């Protein structure tokens, strides 16, 4: 992941407080300002009076210098705002933080008194699973955070490379009185810019020129807070924000292209990989020769190399300056037995090259990023690297070594639908869209035989996971702690009640990527049916997928995201208790919705009741204009889940 993107997202997540010493209000205005925002946002704990970023792009000789001035001013509207006293300012090799100033303006006797922050502590920002990370943050606490007081912050970010301009998101988790983004540069600098997801036209744009200086300014007024919503994608999918980048600039020697088109981005990226793998270690060559000997075809060699990297190289993220962009040589990664996405992608390419097979370094963004190379040819588009193999019949195989449970032929789920930038050679590349895997290839099955014993339902079952359900299940089932594994198995096969008890289970083909994982189990479910007089009532919809999962169309603003599409099949065979007959079977249900559906059939066969169910989810990103259709399907499916079978004594 590009450090710049990661830092930017953390700024958004922690953007809950603060602004500049330059932004002050007069004594007479202060009480009125508090009441104005209190009336406008009565339920909010605090509000950004103003949040702004000013990007300066300055031609210096034959290059560009860029720095960002950030200012934030938060007015606290309630007493319980201590949660906003702590603050972090993030930086990295590419975004060096300087000149931090912070203070609290304490409202006392109808005037503000300043309390400056003096203790800024620099911390490493290394996260779990990160081997090395050059990002960092300054942490500090604002004093006297209380109603009517204001917390203000200003600092500068020096950008090492203008290719990494992050743009600006206008909203955050507090409302804004004013939110603005400004770019100041000269007429010699050609910019590309656009505002995305501003359907309500909340953002005003103004361009001014004064002499050789050009100023671009985007401003939003009285913007509501961004509320967290379940299963939402990255906020850049749906909130107003500016994307901008430098296309070119003029020097005394002529025009210099930066990101004038995708060619510029690709040729820069290619410099990171062009000098790799000039020498191959005996260990790496021997590993490849062994794979070739055991393979009957080129495709099988590719598959075995892919699995070898998944099995033998541990994924560890590594971000340090340009090392966050440049992979290690394949022999180095093979020797160390660890690497990040770039290292693992390059190792796959290197091993296939040794085997005499062409494979290609490929830059790609995960689904955290909404952009496409065909629209925004900048590093904003990607945060990941994989390898690509193109078979003789023209089929593309996207090989993500970091997804160590993913079968050959499947891309990792997080890159479905994304554009891949495939580096063919120094001058040629191809942009190819990674397919979204059809629901029919991601299948869960569950077959059960159950009977009534005393006051409980007991039975045995066999469940299988293939495609992405196997991948995601693999991460949970492939654990050393058996209690964790049992909890996940219970979650997978548990039936409709907190009185479900898993007696025993066995796992088969967990580590075989090319076969479905199988779970055989036995269980008990207490107090699951009712007895009224001579009748028994039992609901055999043991798994009520998405029961009453309605979307509030009036309040929900963000799309809804799913990791993958899938189909789930269930068959339940229940032995009819001796002395009883079937008095009522529910009607069959068929709902073939556009984004989800469910078919349920009931039949009586030779002393058994058989309930067959097919449930499917057919989206990875559900747009707001699809919510109504979702709710229609949920209503019908949820009603069908309420149906019970009635058995009566003979």
Give your account of this protein's structure:
The protein is α+β, with helices and mostly antiparallel strands and 650 residues long. The chain has three domains: 3-257, Immunoglobulin-like; 282-433, C8orf32 fold (Roll); 440-649, Jelly Rolls (Sandwich). It has ten helices and 38 strands. Strands 5-4-9-2-1-11-14-13 form an eight-stranded mixed β-sheet. The protein has an eight-stranded mixed β-sheet with strand order 27-28-26-25-32-36-35-34. A five-stranded antiparallel β-sheet has the order 22-21-20-23-24, with helices on one face. A hairpin with an 8-residue loop joins strand 27 (500-508) and strand 28. The protein starts with a helix and ends with a strand.
Q: What is the top-level CATH class of the largest domain?
A: Mainly Beta
The major beta sheet can be summarized as: 8 strands, mixed
Discrete helix count: 10
Q: So what's the overall shape?
A: globular
Find the count of extended strands (DSSP E, 2+ residues).
Answer: 38
Instruction: Give the assembly state of these chains.
Output: single chain
Question: Level of helix content?
Answer: 10-25%
The assigned CATH architecture of the largest domain is Sandwich
Rounded average pLDDT: 91
Structural class: alpha+beta
The whole-angstrom Rg is 29 Å
Runs in which pLDDT lies below 50 for 5 or more consecutive residues are 3-28
């Amino acid at each position: 992941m590009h450090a710049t993107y990661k830092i930017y997202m953390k700024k958004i997540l922690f953007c809950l407080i603060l602004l500049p010493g330059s932004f002050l209000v007069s004594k007479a205005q202060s009480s009125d300002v508090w009441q104005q925002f209190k009336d406008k946002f009565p339920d909010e704990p605090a509000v950004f009076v103003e949040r702004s970023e000013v990007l300066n792009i300055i031609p210096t000789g034959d290059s560009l210098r860029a720095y960002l001035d950030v200012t934030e001013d938060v007015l606290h509207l309630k007493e319980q705002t201590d949660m906003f006293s702590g603050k972090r300012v993030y930086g990295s090799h590419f975004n060096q933080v300087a000149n931090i100033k912070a203070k609290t303006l304490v409202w006392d006797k109808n005037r503000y008194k300043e309390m400056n922050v003096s203790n800024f502590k620099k911390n490493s920002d290394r996260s779990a699973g990160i081997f090395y990370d050059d990002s960092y943050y300054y942490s500090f606490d604002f004093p006297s955070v209380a109603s009517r007081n204001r917390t203000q912050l200003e600092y500068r970010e020096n950008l090492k490379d203008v290719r990494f301009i992050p743009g600006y998101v206008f909203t955050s988790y507090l409302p804004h009185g004013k939110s603005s983004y400004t770019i100041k540069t000269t007429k010699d600098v050609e910019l590309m810019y656009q505002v995305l997801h501003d359907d309500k036209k909340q953002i005003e744009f103004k361009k001014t020129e004064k002499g050789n200086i050009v100023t671009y300014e985007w401003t939003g007024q009285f913007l509501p807070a961004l509320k967290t919503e379940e299963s939402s994608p990255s906020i850049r999918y749906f909130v107003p924000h500016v994307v901008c980048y430098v296309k070119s600039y003029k020097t005394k020697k002529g025009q210099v292209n930066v990101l004038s088109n995708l060619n510029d981005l690709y040729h820069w990226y290619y410099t990171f990989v062009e000098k790799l793998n000039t020498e191959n270690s005996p260990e790496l060559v021997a590993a490849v020769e062994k794979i070739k000997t055991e393979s009957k075809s080129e495709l099988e060699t590719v598959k075995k190399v892919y699995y070898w990297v998944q099995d033998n190289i541990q994924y560890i993220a590594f971000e340090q300056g340009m090392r966050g962009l440049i992979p290690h040589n394949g022999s180095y990664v093979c020797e160390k037995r660890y690497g990040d996405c770039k290292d693992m992608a390059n190792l796959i390419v290197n091993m296939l090259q040794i085997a005499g097979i062409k494979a290609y370094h490929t830059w790609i963004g995960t689904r955290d990023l909404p952009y496409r190379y065909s629209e925004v040819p900048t590093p904003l588009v990607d945060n990941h690297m994989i390898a690509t193999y193109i078979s003789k019949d023209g089929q593309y195989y996207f090989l993500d070594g970091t997804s160590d449970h993913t079968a050959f032929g499947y891309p990792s789920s997080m890159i479905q639908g994304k554009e891949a930038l495939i580096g063919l050679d120094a001058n040629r590349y191809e942009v190819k869209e990674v397919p979204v895997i059809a629901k029919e290839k991601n299948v869960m099955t569950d077959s059960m035989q159950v009977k009534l014993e005393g006051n409980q339902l007991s039975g045995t079952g066999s469940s299988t996971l293939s495609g992405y359900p196997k991948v995601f299940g693999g991460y949970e089932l492939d654990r050393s702690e058996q209690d964790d594994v049992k909890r996940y198995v219970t979650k997978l096969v548990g039936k409709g009640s907190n009185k479900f008890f898993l007696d025993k289970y066995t796992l088969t083909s967990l580590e075989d990527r090319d076969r479905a994982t199988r779970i055989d189990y036995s269980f008990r479910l207490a107090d699951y049916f009712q007895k009224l007089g001579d009748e028994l009532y039992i609901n055999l919809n043991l798994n009520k997928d998405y029961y009453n999962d309605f979307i509030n169309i009036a309040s929900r603003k963000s799309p809804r995201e799913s990791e993958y599409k899938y189909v789930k099949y269930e068959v339940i065979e229940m032995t009819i208790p001796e002395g009883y007959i079937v008095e009522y079977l529910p009607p069959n249900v068929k709902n073939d919705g556009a984004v989800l559906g469910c078919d349920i059939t009931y039949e009586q066969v030779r002393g058994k009741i058989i309930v067959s169910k097919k449930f499917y989810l057919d989206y990875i990103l559900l747009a707001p204009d699809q919510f109504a259709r979702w709710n229609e399907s949920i209503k019908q499916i949820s009603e069908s889940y309420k149906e019970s079978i009635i058995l009566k004594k003979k």
